[in-house]
Please model this.
Amino acid sequence: MRPRTRLFFAETPTNPYLRVIDLERMADLARRHGILTVVDSTFATPINLRPLEHGIDLVIHSASKYLGGHNDLLGGAVVGSRELIAPIEEARGVMGGISSPADAYLLLRGLKTLALRVARHNENGQRVAEFLAQHPAVRRVHYPGLPSHPDHAIARRQMSGFGGVVSMEIEGDMARAARFVDLLRLPYIGPTLGGVESIVEQPAALFSLDPDERAEAGLVDNLVRYALGVEDADDLIADLRQALDRLLQEG
Ligand SMILES: *Cc1c(COP(=O)(O)O)cnc(C)c1O
Model:
């Protein structure tokens, strides 16, 4: 916060380390200094977190992720008071960014199963994170539902579920993490998340950043982000187990 700060913007949980922002603290600090607060709540979905209830002014979602839920549309949403939304609506009218009827239809259809899908994402996230945390080929697991996560206490207080994204650091270097991704059989490899099918990515490999840029972004080379779909948790774990055990055998 600087003397000219007008807006606080946060993502929670964050990508890819799933850090959880204490929204009441953020809103309180902002209110005392006349600062507007905006939270990107895409990873949490409105099922797991409702930032407006914690005093945040505006909430944005990429509807391309969990709200649509099937990796087949692009969309977004902004939620807040009528007063704050009015100028955004006005700007949209001027600039012309609107959904196609087909995207709007797919989004409405996807929303009907949002609660069911998120319940499964939460269950898969917790079970997979707990499995990974005890596997010797995994150095570290980042998931707010694990007591070892630095923001576990905030997440428990603020959220009703911890979501379907789990990040992990594989024992070894960039090549070993890449090998792990290639050994997985169930997930697609790609940069998106939030759909019914599982998608995995190694951020350091996917975004062609040089080592300095990766360090600046805080991305470790052996990090793998796994966005769990709604498949059966036992199948997902069996697939992870075969890939991780193979890594250990390959040494
Ligand atoms: C994907 C994503 C966005 C961007 O959304 P698009 O619908 O792809 O434009 C913004 N914030 C978060 C947290 C995301 O995951």
